[in-house]
Design goal:
Blueprint: H1 2-10, H2 29-35, E1 54-70, H3 82-88, E2 92-100, E3 103-109, H4 123-140, E4 144-150, E5 154-161, H5 164-176, H6 185-195, E6 201-206, H7 212-224, E7 228-235, H8 237-241, E8 248-250, E9 259-261, H9 263-287, E10 291-296, H10 301-314
Parallel strand pairs: 3-4, 3-6, 6-7, 7-10
Antiparallel strand pairs: 1-2, 4-5, 8-9
Helix pairs in contact: 4-5, 6-7, 7-9
């Protein structure tokens, strides 16, 4: 992994062309140039409208052999394997893997808690960088990209399409969205599972401030609909360490009551509750076959994306 990152960072930077000339505060063209050599692959077969680089559930024309099957009237005679006929005196047809494009749906949590950040960057800013970069990379390889900004409900939803003007619209939405209100992520994911008709790569960016068991049914609903689901779990370093030093008032950024507390009095209970939450969440994502990426937002987002893209490449084409 480190070797891959070193090679990417040392690579010559090529110019990156955007669908518009407008600069984006959350897009770094140097990062895009370095990540251009790492394609975004689906872990599950996708159903697309055009030829692409992702495995399809259907058979088609490609260079990768899939299997033999018995000839039936109407099959293309050019696909008959005459060597197999010579060995068995039976007609067999060669089948090959079909490759297609995918639909990439970026689901960005825009609830109030995503506005928190103690290191000079908020969780929503980090989510913008991840979503914008992945959206650009997917668009460049011919995939359809869409975005859904969600909080108590679906705040804004742009269905996946594959053209430059559409990518510009997605980047506009990401730039303009602001964290506000409470979260109803589980209910929103159930809604998206029903409204995204065709199987897709669904990338969720959220701090997941919700009980893991509540998330279980929404994750399983998405998987039942044959979607390939990735979750980027974004947490601030202070949320992981709780390294507060003096009494302070803790505000609920999603509208709940404020709490005044002495950190030393509650640190042990907080750490115990946090570890129980993370353990339960890990169990849920493993049992739901979710691609789970937990990230502290003080980590360089490029490194997080390299780790994600390399792991995707290693699991390409699983059926």
């Amino acid at each position: 992994m480190c070797r891959v990152l070193d090679l990417l960072l040392a690579a010559a930077e090529s110019p990156v062309m955007f669908p518009d000339r407008q600069s984006r505060s959350f897009i770094d063209t140097r990062v895009l140039s370095r990540l251009a050599g790492l394609p975004l692959f689906a872990r599950r077969p996708m159903q697309g409208a055009v030829s692409g680089r992702h495995a399809s559930p259907h058979r088609g024309s490609s260079v990768e052999f899939a299997e033999y099957r018995k000839y039936v009237p109407g099959d293309d005679l050019r696909r008959l394997d005459w060597r197999a006929f010579g060995r068995s005196d039976r007609y067999y047809v060669k089948e090959f893997e079909a490759d297609t494009n995918l639909r990439c749906c970026l689901v960005v949590d825009t609830s109030g808690s995503m506005g928190f950040g103690s290191t000079g960057i908020t969780k929503i800013d980090y989510a913008r960088r991840i979503a914008g970069t992945l959206g650009y990379l997917a668009s460049q390889q011919g995939d359809a990209v869409g975005v859904a900004c969600v909080a108590k409900g679906v705040v804004q939803n742009i269905p996946p399409k594959r053209n430059a003007a559409h990518l510009r619209q997605i980047l506009d939405v990401l730039e303009q969205t602001q964290p506000k209100g409470e979260t109803q992520l589980a209910a929103v994911l159930h809604e998206l599972a029903e409204t995204i008709r065709q199987r897709a790569l669904i990338i969720i960016l959220s701090d997941l401030f919700i009980e893991p068991e509540v998330l279980r049914s929404s994750f399983q609903h998405l998987r039942f609909r044959r979607h390939d689901v990735t979750v980027f779990h974004l947490l601030d370093p202070l949320e992981l360490s709780f390294s507060f030093r003096r009494p302070m008032r803790f505000l609920d950024m999603e509208g709940g009551p404020a709490i005044f507390a002495e950190p030393n009095d509650i640190a042990d209970r907080y750490d115990k509750a946090l570890q129980a939450y993370l353990t339960d969440l890990k169990k849920v994502v493993l049992e739901s076959a979710i691609d789970y990426q937990r990230i502290s937002i003080d980590e360089n987002y490029e490194q997080a994306l390299v780790r994600f893209l390399v792991s995707r490449a290693q699991s390409k084409g699983l059926r």
